[in-house]
Amino acid sequence: MAFYPRVKGMRAEIEDMVDAEIAALPARGQFDLVEDIALGLPIKVIAKIIGVDESMLDQFRAWSEAIVYSLDPLRTPEQTEQMIQAGLEINAYFLNLMAQRRTDPRDDLTTDMVRKQSDGAELSDAEIAANLELLLSAGNLTTTDMIGVGTWLFLNHPSEIAKLNDDPALAGLAVEEVLRMDGPAAVTTRVIMDAREMRGCPMKAHQPMLVSLHGANHDPDVFEDPDTFNISRKGPPHVAFGGGQHICLGAPLARIEGKRFFLKLFERYPDLRIADQPNAVEFRALPLFRGLTRLIVDTGR
User: Fold this and answer.
1) Contacts from 36-39 at CB under 8 Å and sequence distance 24+?
2) Structural domain spans, the chain
3) pLDDT tens, per residue, the chain with 301 residues
4) CATH fold for domain 3-298
5) Which residue, 107, 109, 190, 251, could crosslink 241 as a Cys pair with Cβ 3.0–4.6 Å?
């Protein structure tokens, strides 16, 4: 898979991008953490990895937000039309980008993918385009949610901010605890492979089912004191990224971004807090997912 080595090789560059975005935030006063960094940072990172022209970032953000309507069973007819149109436009863009990279290769993931295809990998143009579309849309939106909700969690537990600042080595565990405590994907779907029964509930082979990732990550039989946010927690792994063949493709990238983001944000703003104003916190109304549309914070300076 081309994505994992590409992300690994760009780790230092990704961390530099996170640092630069945090440095560009206001030195004091109040700002909207979602609008001012959580929305923009992940799409800049994934666009850089894929090889998207920076002048297209606003368009890609719009496409991503329209495509995510596919996950909303309550979407309006207008939103369905926006979703379809965005899907057509982004697909055409990537097919064109792939054609460009075949004649003008660059140091990016799109070039990696078309090279693998030319070297004999069983990948059609449609499959490459679909994977690039998935990375661009799902990869940046869920990371936005992780950053926003994770910051909100920290601000509601200031002792954990102090703990992280006292011991920066906890940054990796902090990301895992954010994902366990309140991950971006609340629910996923699976298909039963064979007939079985669980706690008296019969399940048929090939039957689809909804699975609560949030419920699994708060299972008291697995996690000690599961409803407590504790960034030094060790023990069983969470299932926020799924597992096995269903593991989230973007997990390594999300971990790099999250680890650097929380470490550097609270290093710069050790006294950061939620602003004392109405509607400072607003959660997004998207079924099955957990994210913020607003998080007004105060630097405490």
Assistant:
1) 37/147, 38/144, 38/147, 38/148, 38/151, 38/292, 38/295, 39/144
2) 3-298
3) 688 899 999 999 999 999 999 999 999 999 999 999 999 999 999 999 999 888 888 898 888 888 888 878 888 999 999 999 999 999 999 999 999 999 999 999 999 999 999 998 888 999 999 989 888 877 778 999 999 999 999 999 999 999 999 999 999 999 999 999 999 999 888 889 999 998 888 999 999 988 899 999 999 999 999 999 999 999 899 999 988 877 888 899 999 999 999 999 999 999 999 999 999 999 988 778 899 999 999 998 7
4) Cytochrome p450 (1.10.630)
5) 251
